[in-house]
Structure formats: structure tokens, C-alpha cells
Write a structure and sequence with these properties.
This protein is α+β, with helices and mostly antiparallel strands. The protein contains 1 helix and 5 strands.
Length: 79
Amino acid sequence: MIKITCDVCDKVRPQSDRRIGEDSWVLGYDIEVENANALQRSLRFLSRWDDARVLELGAIHLCSEKCKDRYIKEARAVA
């Protein structure tokens, strides 16, 4: 069993019976690509939660739009 927690507030995602659900949780990706001249960071968010993609490289798990906004704000501060 995989325990999913919010990457901002550490809230635990409850287990669901559906693979793709309509809920408040947000699944996205925070990817960094580095080459010889630059470091590029890209934030992407899916339109719906998909359990089949939660372990993909760079996946971020957020429990609400509030945590999503906070994650974006903190990502901008780091950049």
C-alpha cells in the first residue's frame, strides 16, 4: 500500500476505490532540466487526480488549491 501525503502540509490522502477521481487533491509535476548553459524548472498540473501516475518522476501531490498556491509561491521564491 502506498501512503500519499501533501507535499506542502503533510496531510494524508485517504484511500479511494477509484483510479481516477474527482476530488480536491491536485496531482502535478515539478521537473528540472539542466544543460550546459541553464537550469530550467517547469511546474505542470493535471486536470484531475490519477492514481496510476502518482509515482512518476517529479510528481507532486497537493491536498487542495490552497496548498497548490502555496507550492507555486514557494517555488517562485526559490527560483
